[in-house]
From TrEMBL, chains A, B:
PANTHER family with a match to the protein in the record: ACETATE--COA LIGASE [ADP-FORMING]
Pfam families: ATP-grasp_5, CoA_binding_2, Ligase_CoA_2, Succ_CoA_lig
Classification via Gene3D superfamilies: ATP-grasp fold, A domain, ATP-grasp fold, B domain, NAD(P)-binding Rossmann-like Domain, Succinyl-CoA synthetase domains
Keyword Ligase attributed: yes
MF (Gene Ontology): acetate-CoA ligase (ADP-forming) activity; ATP binding; metal ion binding
Protein name (database record): Acetyl-CoA synthetase (ADP-forming) alpha and beta chains, putative
Domain ATP-grasp: 468-504
InterPro entries: Acyl-CoA_Synth/Transferase, ATP-grasp, ATP_grasp_subdomain_1, CoA-bd, Ligase_CoA_dom, NAD(P)-bd_dom_sf, Succ_CoA_lig_flav_dom, Succinyl-CoA_synth-like
Keywords: ATP-binding, Ligase, Nucleotide-binding
Protein's organism: Conexivisphaera calida
């Protein structure tokens, strides 16, 4: 898979320039200085470039070329791709920019490029990519000298890619691959991640994306990768302003940030908020220390200990419990003014020996030991870093602060112990790494419940009675109801349903019934006739429903352009708009996933507050069933608002379905 | 004010040791190497220390000593303080630890120290402080060599203080003062901040606190300081675990993080979440660039631009609008593949000249220009830093990323342009600096409304009728009500109030009426008698209220140990517990402050959602009046839950008051 790009035996650089400031020259030199196979510069004007004979075209080389790196003016790219086909080239990297990211005419050129490449059987990365670095060659136009190692970096943006390469160089982080995705006209992020998933040298993958090229493939194939190794995702385009910028920039649809987050969770990836989080996470992933969610803090500064404990609580980690035996032992070994609890405060006059002593006592506790050292007159970071290094493999993480923190960090890096400058960074990175979850496969294929198709056939919107029937077919309960257009029938149905009632207009097209005064609550026997008269002036048909009390939950369904059917769950009623406390899932979801989403969006809290014991299980079941229905029937938009939940179950009270 | 500590003419170091690893020796050497006045080592065993003649005691010096720095074993501190009194010393810094931070016996020793010092007229910092640095001497036990400048640092924790000193040294940040507060037995953070507020060399103050020593003084006096210069606060002890650690550590009551945040806002300070935020803020405060809330991003990396725009939106700043004239000019000056919008994306091949060109075009726009450079083959950070420096004074902030970022940051620092490594850091710091507000003085002295005292006199809890009368005296509306103990009176009052009614039990002691089944909703004429019979079995007296529809708001009052009366406002009903979306204010608050708190806690959103136009003004008025009542009547706890708000106003429906 993608061998033609990542494992070439010979490489041609098309557009190889003699001008050392030009991209085409820099790439050639980078390839020449790293690749041990044959390298062919292609330049239609000169005879040699950088001491190698130059060829007029790919066809003119006359020998087998596996990979062509193309850096020619954008109007020449199509011809080069045609040549590549004729010359039997199987892989290409199109560096040239000016395609989809610049607007409609660029997009048309990109389509043409894709067609030509497909026709000729050439797989290609780009266009508008900054290139790749593999264990055997560097085909980028940045100068980098990174160590070989286990981290793979995939970046959609060139600048972001260059940043991460520089970061790897500065921090001595070893890389297996670097891949600039560019516009993903042919090879996409999913292709690249699958390749890296199978690559035995790659231990973990870090990805910067502005959009996903193919949502369903992402959801289906990425779990294969996350099962083998950790994959972290940073997404650009969170805000509207950011999304607009992403649109200009790589021509990708930025899509919904929240859905991307749901997708990453669903495929078992690690989601990070910003670049720093991504880089910090890399430190933790790249280390060999066995880390746990229980964290013990050891410090010579009470203040730093306080801040670290704050951050542990904020990030869903736990302060490690200090067993009495260990506490007694620490009390014996530490000076009187030290504190043997968590945080272990060694005191402002602690030296490196005292750190070593404390570490020996706690070394076998099954927890992460976050060792914070503030360089003071009595202790240096380097001394403590040495003490930590000697204890490596015991779940250690270092935070070093002082004039010699760089040197101390290098000592810890060399020992494979993650080193940070702020305890907040350490804690967040540990949390992101440990709190990722198993991927969930979305394998259910649409299998509509018998009878469902008959209800929806040929309709764009469903009337109340159809919507209720459909939900009941899917096992979602609705309160006793009737739709009537006659006052006598209304009275009869009201008696059957029972009081108090809710009466609402029931028009064919969906409207906001409350906003236009089309709802009557607390309807008793005496009011049925009068209300029917009022409401039937607004709509021929009137809905009668048993009035229920309980917590109002909102369940929404949308069809996302990228990820397809998705479900939203949150607190209902006005709180949907006011709080926007809604969490997302990609349909279909299981009851377990429904429960997770309900927890995130505080629905579970609302159902269980004041010990009321409302039916959480039924709610999760209803949400999961609605998510199945959305998939089966290709629902475009759905609002169940509210789903009323009480001790008897979860009941869909108001439903709007667009097909 | 505090001249005896900060402006001494002569200094004695008591406990000056010959051992160069001991705190008492390090302090002496630091003082000797910085102070130009007389220095007297005091040591009762040797005749000289570090080449100076040593004295047996303070009294034995026989010359005027202004400041005594005390670093002797804790059991000797009291005697030294007595000596100081006899020798006419007026100021002291007690370095020695082992006092309140270690428990009860230490606390008693600290009280004794305070008494002795007061009796002798000695003002002192500490105990358990790491000392101070002033423009004329260094009396700490860390080795620091910081530049002189305009930033003052105040730290309660020694380790945190050392950290900030190291940071100043590493970044070349110039300091006016550094003050380690220690246990604040005598001189408190308020004293120190007032001194620094009046100090003409101090431009801005950065404070790390774990607790406030005296809430009312903090609230009353800090506004004097923030009116003159920016003051930033970082609080340790946010979480329970953190607060517990803070308790161990400095013996201070960590107090409520949320109330501290409210207090900082109220006094016009800047509140930061963590150490990094504090340090980044210092960069912005320390620069001379005129910054604005509208931000224009200029970058050579689309990806970085996208992330920066995201962060701008997240931090209540605005993307600057690009005027068409400027956009046209940029289009002329920039290459075709660049984007002249916001972010201005100069393209991956931009060089420093292109940056300079773009900066010239946008220089006079009234906005912050966030210039992001990713070092690439065609451009280095240093080159762009030079271009930025030449344009300084135009609202510039730099973000430099690449191998030469350190050098570039130094160039920007030297030019007085804030320099960052992550655009997130830059954006957050700008936001914290610009989004601080004017201090609010809490000057209202308790002036109970006539008649209020008569109602509350001698009571611990108020019965429903007293609570309603009290609220009405304070101008807070309540729905029509009656408390009755007779079925016939109930019927008569019900007719007067109007239907539908709410009927509730009305016992003398407060109970959760709903939880024990003591509430009947939607009561019509027919039900009054029956419900009265049911409820009067549970409590002799029964409350009748007109039933209102509207949004439920929660208003709470507490009396905080540190800050005194405070008010909480949030969405009411079950959402108080579920969402904990509650914001805090320190009572009394104005209507304007009430409005701010209501905005923070989404109450305003709820009142205005779906264009319903519920009465926001009346709600703010009611909240402000309740906050006055809390202060006037010394209310211990108060719950108005709910305050029901609709188009007719805000009505207190259920009230619990503890005096």
């Amino acid at each position: 898979m993608l061998e033609q790009i990542f494992y070439p035996v010979s490489i041609a650089v098309v557009g190889a320039s003699r001008d050392r400031g030009k991209v085409g020259n820099i790439i050639l030199r980078n390839v020449m200085s790293t690749f041990t196979g044959k390298v062919y510069p292609v330049n239609d004007k000169v005879d040699s470039v950088e001491g190698l004979p130059a060829y007029r075209s790919l066809v003119g080389i006359g020998e087998q070329v596996d990979l062509a790196i193309i850096s020619v003016p954008k109007d020449a790219v199509i011809n080069v791709m045609e040549d590549a086909g004729k010359a039997g080239v199987k892989g290409a990297i199109v560096i040239t920019s000016g395609f989809r990211e610049t607007g409609d005419s660029g997009a048309r050129l990109e389509e043409e490029l894709k067609t030509v490449a497909n026709k000729n059987g050439v797989r290609f990365l780009g266009p508008n990519t900054m290139g790749i670095v593999t264990p055997s060659f560097n085909a980028t136009f940045t100068y980098v000298d990174v160590k070989h190692g286990g981290i793979a970096i995939v970046a959609q943006s060139g600048g972001m890619g260059a940043y991460m390469l520089t970061w790897a160089q500065r921090t001595g982080t070893g890389l297996s691959y670097f891949v600039g995705l560019g516009n993903q006209a042919d090879v996409s992020e999913v292709d690249v991640l699958r390749f890296l998933g199978e690559d035995s040298e790659t231990k973990a993958i870090f990805v910067y994306l502005e959009g996903v090229s193919n949502g369903p493939r992402f959801l289906e194939e990425i779990p294969e990768v996350t099962r083998r190794k950790p994959v972290a995702f940073l997404k650009g385009g969170a805000s509207n302003a950011g999304a607009a910028a992403a649109g200009t920039h790589t021509g990708s649809l930025a899509g919904s940030y929240e859905l991307f987050r749901a997708a990453v969770k669903s495929v078992g990836g690690m989601f990070v908020d910003d670049l720093r989080d991504l880089l910090n996470l890399a430190k933790v992933v790249n280390s060999n220390e066995p880390l746990r969610g229980d964290v013990l803090v050891i410090t010579n500064s009470g203040g730093h200990g306080v801040l670290a404990m704050d951050e542990i609580s904020r990030n869903s980690l736990n302060p490690a419990k200090m067993p009495p035996r260990i506490q007694s032992e620490l009390t014996l070994k530490l000076p009187a003014h030290a504190s043997p609890r968590n945080p272990v405060d060694l005191g402002g006059d602690a030296n490196a020996e005292l750190y070593a002593e404390a570490l020996r006592v706690v070394q076998d506790l099954d927890c992460t030991k976050l060792v914070i050292v503030q360089a003071l007159a009595t202790v240096s970071c380097v001394e403590v870093a040495r003490a930590i290094s000697r204890m490596r493999g015991k779940g250690l993480v270092g935070v070093v602060m002082g004039m010699d923190e760089d040197a101390a960090a290098r000592i810890l890096d060399a020992a494979g112990v993650p080193a940070f400058r702020f305890s907040e960074d350490a804690v967040r990175a540990i949390s992101r790494y440990l709190n990722r979850r198993e991927p969930r496969l979305k394998l259910r294929s649409p299998t509509p419940v018998p009878g469902a198709i008959d209800i929806i056939e040929g309709k764009q919107y469903l009337r109340d009675e159809d919507a209720f029937k459909l939900l009941e077919l899917y096992g979602v309960r609705v309160p006793p109801w009737a739709v009537v257009d006659d006052p006598n029938v209304a009275m009869k149905e009201a008696e059957r349903i029972g009081f108090p009632l809710v009466m609402k207009i029931s028009p064919d097209e969906p409207v906001h019934k409350t906003d236009i005064g089309g709802v009557r609550l607390n309807v008793e026997r005496d009011n049925v006739e009068g209300y029917f008269a009022e409401l039937s002036k607004m709509s021929k048909r009137v809905l009668l429903q048993r009035q229920l009390a309980g917590v109002e939950v909102f369940v929404g369904g949308i069809r996302d352009q990228v990820f397809g059917p998705a479900i939203l769950v949150g607190l209902g009623g006005i709180y949907v708009e006011v709080l926007r406390s809604v969490s997302y899932g990609l349909s279909p979801i299981s009851e377990q996933e429904a429960l997770e989403i309900m927890s995130e969006s505080k629905v579970v809290d609302a159902l269980t507050a004041r010990k009321r014991g409302y039916d959480v299980g039924s709610t999760a079941r209803a949400v999961a069933r609605i998510s199945n229905m959305i998939v089966d029937l290709n629902v475009k938009e759905l609002d169940v608002n509210p789903l009323i939940v009480n001790e008897n179950g979860a009941f869909a009270v108001d439903v709007r379905i667009k097909l």
